[in-house]
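User: I'm putting together notes for a lab meeting next week and I want to include a structural view of one of the chains we've been expressing. I don't have a solved structure, so I'd like a prediction I can at least talk through. The sequence is below, exactly as it appears in our construct file.
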Amino acid sequence: MGSPVDEAKGFVRSRQPLLAVELLEPWLEAHPDDAGAWSALAGARYELHNYQDALAAAEQAVKYRPRSARNWCNLGMLLRKVGRFYEAERTLYRALSIDASYDRARVELRKIHEIRTGDRVIEDDDDFA
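Assistant: Thanks for the context. Below is the predicted structure for the 129-residue chain, given as structure tokens.
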């Protein structure tokens, strides 16, 4: 058996995000600085369409692993989801400052631009990494 975080990621991949949340919440009480667990919790909550709690978990992932372009990008995507476009842009540019080749951050920035220009309708896309 792998770590609780790996097991939780498996639950999310198998479309059982509630099991991931149930596994990760007690784990994080004992290991509050586990950035990977916070990121996995954000992904599980995202799959449950609980964007506010996913956002809070993603903020913790960034807090504990601030040099992760992926964590910053996930935070930016969630900020976009809740309509906080200016903050999302700043966060996505932060991801690109860490890893200029991180294409997913550019895709997220394009989505924000398209929403602002009316070229994109806000939809529930499957884009949490």
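A couple of points you could mention at the meeting. The chain has seven helices and no strands. The radius of gyration is 14 Å.

User: Perfect, that's what I needed.
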